[in-house]
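ok trying again, last paste got cut off:
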Amino acid sequence: MPQSKDVVAINEVVLRDGFQNEPTFVATEEKIRLANGLSLTGVRRIEVSSFTSPMAIPNLRDAEDVFRGIDRVPGVIYTALVPNERGVQRAIESKVDEVNLVMSIGEKHNLTNLRMTCAQSLEQFKGIMGALAGTEISVNGTIATAFGCPFEGQQPVERVLWAIDAYLELGITGITVADTIGVANPRQVGGLMALIRKHHEDLPLTLHLHNTRDMGLANALAAVDEGVRSFDSALGGIGGCPYAPGATGNVCTEDLVHMLHGCGIETGVDLEALIDLSGTLSESIGHQVPGYVLKSGTSSRLYA
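nice, full thing came through this time. structure:
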């Protein structure tokens, strides 16, 4: 299905990508509260958790409990990252709407992060797709380190196109291109998005940006100009890749929505509701969040 030319979809990843690196466990009840609040804001997707090993990511060890406890709102897609076939069985039992598969096109990053070569990741994805056959669960494939790997540097654009083709051959229906360590710049983003859309005009394409070098919003706007209409972001701007020292986290959801609305781009998201939820986040994680709009207010704010 072609992406809408009018409305940008916002996909909230704070519960997974945001919380996965937090040193203090975020209570299950708090995750459920945030998920329920986010469900009412107008975001398109909520990445609720990851069905990974509790040893690998302790903060997401309650994935089943969170899925069991949330109130599902019609029209919102509840998704989870799935790293292997054991994880996909847990996802099926938790009645997820969508699973997200991730492979880094930087071979060294894939080996460090997933302990597999890219070829081994794709082979494992075949097993996951087989396990999902006959279910109504959709599958999204994320291409990590698409704009640069912390160990190998910038990746050839041909490798991004190769990964997309490999995903589509497996039957994956949606593609996310990720600036995993926050090294992209607007011209690089615009060029790659234009190239992808030239090769796959109607591909449901999402951009996952990190704000490590404070270029996340500029990169998002460059992608919008090239026709991208779906973005991942995290409430408060928390999260980040453990292999990017000093990373400030994902693009902040309320900052992204604020920018888009200011540019006359519709999202269908209630910005004030996002800001209210973001204001409760610091207490949950025990530190301040890096988002700007929460601190400064919207650009329409007036003072006495």
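cool. The first strand starts at residue 9 and ends at 12. The mean pLDDT is 95.
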